């Protein structure tokens, strides 16, 4: 009987990270991602394309990956119906599909308790206590995703338009955005059809501008940090509780958090795809 392979997948709004482990060998691959809520077909396609990329890198057939036990943590999965629909659209023989919180928690915290602030294209805050994981956020950019890259990018465009109208003072960042797009009308055209990941790309460099003193960037980072603090407190965080903010955007927010929170920030144990791979092994043996 051949040894079982395990496939961990962390699919976010921008990237889809895949890890495959079998017989002591580990192969990783990063492809494009998509949020299930905003683009269910694109999400399924992104996962399959990332798996094909991993198979090509590993020198194996895609069918071998499909025989592995797969665990998928996917941004935009809200209900069991969502999970079942995505599972049916994928070629895996055995898989477990959930939202991206559990994979993030296991990856970031390992076997320890604590709080995790997930900040990518979207956002959420979660608390793990033993086997229980509670969370807030993750509702998507239309209704939420506060402090996320997409939220920051959209906020930058909004503030640039308000500065154009004289409602807010212009800063170097708002002028640069208006110049980059070629005026307010072009910003409106872009926003009409832009996906969250496209808004998110606009946030690149925003934290650096905030540290350098740009008023627009600083206001956005401070507003996002305030939401993070509220989310932590809503889940019962108290001074001394471990807080993990994985990724570059999470690290960028740390200087804007209250001192009592900053003092409790610890490095992530590992990335979400590591958590997904661990959960694949866990569910396969259940």
Automatic annotation (TrEMBL):
Provide the ATPase BadF/BadG/BcrA/BcrD type domain boundaries: 7-261
Source organism: Pseudoprimorskyibacter insulae
Q: What class of enzyme is it?
A: transferase
Q: Which Gene3D superfamilies match?
A: 3.30.420.40
Molecular function (Gene Ontology), one example? glucosamine kinase activity
Lineage of the organism: Bacteria, Pseudomonadati, Pseudomonadota, Alphaproteobacteria, Rhodobacterales
List the protein's name.
Answer: Glucosamine kinase GspK
Kindly give the InterPro entries that the UniProt entry links to this protein: ATPase_BadF, ATPase_NBD, Euk-type_GlcNAc_Kinase
The question of whether tRNA processing is a record keyword is answered with: no
Q: Per the UniProt record, which EC number(s) apply here? A: 2.7.1.8
């Amino acid at each position: 009987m051949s040894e079982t392979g395990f496939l961990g997948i962390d699919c976010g709004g921008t990237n889809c990270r895949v890890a495959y482990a079998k017989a002591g060998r580990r192969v990783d691959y990063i492809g494009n991602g998509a949020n299930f809520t905003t683009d269910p077909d694109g999400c399924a396609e992104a996962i399959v394309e990332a798996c094909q990329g991993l198979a090509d890198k590993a020198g194996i057939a895609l069918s071998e990956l499909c025989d592995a036990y797969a665990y998928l943590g996917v941004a935009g999965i809200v209900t069991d119906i969502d999970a079942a629909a995505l599972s049916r659209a994928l070629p895996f023989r055995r898989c477990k599909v959930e939202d991206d919180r559990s994979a993030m928690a296991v990856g970031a915290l390992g076997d320890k308790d604590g709080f995790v602030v997930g900040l990518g294209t979207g956002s959420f805050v979660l608390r793990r206590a033993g086997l229980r994981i509670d969370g807030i956020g993750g509702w998507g950019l239309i209704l939420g995703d506060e402090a996320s890259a997409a939220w920051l990018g959209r906020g930058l465009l909004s503030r640039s338009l308000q500065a154009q109208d004289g409602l807010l003072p212009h800063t170097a960042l708002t002028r640069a955005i208006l110049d980059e797009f070629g005026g307010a009308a072009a910003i409106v055209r872009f926003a009409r059809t832009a996906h969250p990941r496209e808004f998110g790309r606009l946030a690149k460099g925003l934290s650096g501008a905030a540290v350098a003193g740009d008023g627009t960037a600083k206001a956005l980072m401070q507003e996002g940090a305030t939401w993070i603090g509220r989310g932590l407190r809503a889940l019962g965080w108290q001074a001394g509780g471990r807080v993990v903010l994985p990724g570059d955007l999470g690290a960028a927010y740390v200087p804007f958090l209250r001192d009592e929170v900053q003092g409790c920030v610890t490095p992530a144990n590992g990335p979400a795809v590591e958590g997904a791979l661990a959960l694949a092994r866990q569910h396969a043996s259940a």
